[in-house]
Amino acid sequence: MPFLVPIVVLLLIDPNHFILGWNEGAGGGFLFAFVFLMLEWYDVRRLLEFRLVRKRKLGIAVLACLVAAYFVVVYALNQNVLVAQFGAKLGYSSTPQILSWTRMWDYIIYALFISAVVSLWLGIKRLRQFPTPIVFLSGMAFILLLDASFPYGSMESLQFLMQPILMVTVFLLRAVGVRVDLVGYESLAVWGNKGFLFINMYWQCAGILSMTIYLLVIVILMVKLETSVFRKLIYVVLGAIGTFLVNIIRIFLIIYYGAFIDINLRMFHESIGEVLFTIWIVIYLVTITSIETHSAKNVKSDASTIPIARALTSHSNSKACAF
Known about the structure:
The chain has helices at about 5-15, 25-45, 55-75, 80-90, 95-120, 130-150, 155-175, 205, 210-225, 230-260, 265-320, and strands at about 180-185, 185-190, 195-200. The longest helix is centred in the last third of the chain and has 57 residues, at about 265-320. By secondary structure, the protein is mainly alpha-helical. The radius of gyration is 25 Å and the shape is globular. It has 2 domains: about 1-150, no CATH class; about 155-295, no CATH class.
């Protein structure tokens, strides 16, 4: 499977790239994209025609080697300085800006790699049947670009959207006995068993654009789902509500963890978001698949009873005519 080659190479040369933390590594995002790719392949596998002539095989191998070589040069040979210097010329000079700028290119390159391999392997027309991983990777790159361009909550419009999230989170924390106050529009003061915490919440921490990406993925999956428009709209709305609530739970658990378990939030903060969203997406997709499978069986069952009923009616009428 050529899609795994860059991921395996990156894992071997830099395991830290797979830390589930914001702009600390794109490896986890690559794994998400690969899962989405496999889900879409499973849906359309019977329609695919593999065009693996010698030239196409060679092209795919060259692409895999080029992407793997990029990761080796940047992360094994420590040439990420070149990428950072290019970003510095555009004004991305601070530490969080440089990290987001560098990781952004990882997502862009892997998105282009998937697009090129699918086009060579199956034909460019089949590319439209694999939109989810490409949209996910492109969306993550866009988030990182925004993070590099507007660090520390400097984008006021997104800071404004964060306020209702914090208000709901504060309400839930107080409901379970956590002493917490909302300071201004973007900070939380927390008094817990482990000490006092003052947390600045920027839009990156509130998960606003992460929610947008997950919702976009859900919308794409719903467009591809073979069901009525009304059902699709219901699934999208439920997906939006569920994604919003999962994000609220994420922030709630992080602050609760700091108040009652450990004020060192780094490791917990870096992992809980991806874990929760992964669980949510899996449950969401499995539930919808189960509902649609059950509905399809009922439709087939109803369709099969109609000819039987007609046959019985016809048989009854023929007897009546005979007498």
